[in-house]
Amino acid sequence: MRSLLPQLDRRTFHLIASREWPGAQRVLPRLTRSANHGLLWFGIAAGAAALGGRPMRRAALRGVASLAVASATVNTLGKGSVRRQRPLLDAVPVIRQLHRQPVTSSFPSGHAASAVAFATGVAFENKWWGLALAPVAASVAFSRVYTGVHYPGDVLAGAALGAGAAFAVRGFAPTRAQLAPPARPRAEAPALPGGRGLVVVANQRSGQRTGPGPDRAEEVHGVLPQAEVTVCSGPDGEPLDKALEDAAERAKALGGALGVLGGDGTVNAAAEVALRHGLPLAVLPGGTLNHFAYDLGIETYAAAARAVETGEAVAVDVARFRAGPHPEARHFLNTFSIGAYPELVRIRERWAGKIGAWPAGVLAAWEVLRTAEPLTLTVNGERRAVWLLFAGNSQYRGLGFAPVRRHDLADGVLDVRVVHGGRLARTRLLAAALLGTPRSSPVLGEARLSRLRISGLPEGTTLAFDGEVAPAPAELTLDKQNEALTVYRLLPE
């Protein structure tokens, strides 16, 4: 059996080498050279990250990570444990042969491992993008036999290692689909085929850093052709608050729902109106970061549209804060903070896509703690100095001082995190961040609460909530409205 497999491998190699492959002679040698050192895949990943949105950047990062693991495995365990001679080139036409022949062991194929690892890693994030890359990956793998540098068995072994590397990366860093927010508690919402009965307010400015951007009404009608759309905050649009009120009254008259296309600040404003009118909310993620939509599992307009048409929805918590005994409250769906947290998030988000979330969190902490001054205030009756106070609507994951995302948006808690002032506080916190153990640092305090009281705030202090900044009153109370807001979201089958 051992001798039969190498014979079959060689026979298949000679069969491929001696056969004419129409069109392959001009394409495959160039393709195999482009994949040297993973350059083809790094180029695709860079283009996707630059031109695509957050889902595309995430897929590109997973593909590159899978490629890196596959390459390391092939070049250490693979080629180091099996010493196999490269095929003889007698049967390969000279025009197909590479100008520079590889000198390492033939088994396994590193090109095939990298190609399959990258395509599989991308597919774990989005199966359609993975399918689009599959023919390219298969062509790169086949080109190694076509140009005479590998036996078919080398390519198959490399492909298996590449797929295994992608699975290993997924096991270490689960995809968003694996960590999808639980579809509970389910809530009643009307099914609106084609968007009939849905009244959408689209913020023309959301997510637009420069230029006028796409036509928001056309974006909505592309997925929900019968929805009514009001575009606001553009040159010819009406103010956001008035547009939302008018849309809510229209939706209530139709027996439908309120929709919003925009970023977290726009969604926050729409949520307040939806709560006041008792309407379900449809969120189309059209901002720059879209934390609420992404944490809920709504990553595309199409996903939101399918949920609206089928009437699938969940109930989510809404957090709120009010000034002292004042009855009127403001709401937040994501985060509330006092102190240096808004600046920390801004720095982390700017660098996370370039150097990774953990290094970006460390860099942000260093920059903020280097320049910020602690505030003295009273938290639940205790007077203390703090650099920042953060409260999240439901529990966040991530570094202790730089939480990243949530798994459950209906857990009934405020995720409260405080970075204390004091002697050597900056040094101790940064040391914990560098060691990857921020939660064990005495400088960081964490608690899961249903209510939080803050008082004694110095004059001139600002607070931030869901991307908005406002002056902070001397006294604040934060609490939760559990499962208060109904939001359209596809439910698992």
Question: Describe it for me?
Answer:
This protein is α+β, with helices and mostly antiparallel strands and 493 residues long. Helices cover 44% and strands 22% of the residues. The strands form 3 sheets. Strands 5, 6, 7, 8, 9, 12, 13, 14, 15, 16 and 17 form an 11-stranded antiparallel β-sheet that branches. The chain has a 4-stranded parallel β-sheet with strand order 2-1-3-4, with helices on both faces. Strands 10-11 form a two-stranded antiparallel ribbon. The mean pLDDT is 83.
Derived from helix and strand composition plus strand pairing, the structural class reads alpha+beta
Q: Mean pLDDT, rounded to whole units?
A: 83
Radius of gyration: 28 Å
Dominant shape = elongated
Q: State the distance separating the first and last CA atoms.
A: 46 Å
Number of strands: 17
Beta-sheet strand percentage?
15-25%
Query: In DSSP terms, counting alpha (H) and pi (I) runs of 4 or more, how many helices?
Result: 15
Largest sheet geometry: 11 strands, antiparallel
Helix % is 40-55%
Enumerate the spans where pLDDT stays under 50 for 5 or more consecutive residues: none
List the keywords:
22% strand; 4-stranded parallel β-sheet; 493 residues; alpha+beta; single chain; 15 helices; elongated
What is the topological layout?
Elements: H1 4-18, H2 24-34, H3 39-51, H4 54-81, H5 110-125, H6 127-146, H7 152-172, E1 198-203, H8 216-223, E2 228-232, H9 240-254, E3 257-262, H10 264-277, E4 281-285, H11 291-296, H12 301-310, E5 313-323, E6 330-332, E7 335-339, H13 341-355, H14 357-371, E8 375-379, E9 382-393, E10 396-399, E11 402-406, E12 414-420, H15 425-434, E13 444-449, E14 451-455, E15 462-465, E16 468-471, E17 475-488
Parallel strand pairs: 1-2, 1-3, 3-4
Antiparallel strand pairs: 5-6, 5-17, 7-9, 7-15, 8-9, 8-14, 9-12, 10-11, 12-13, 14-17, 15-16
Helix pairs in contact: 2-6, 3-4, 4-5, 4-7, 5-6, 5-7, 6-7, 9-10, 13-14, 14-15
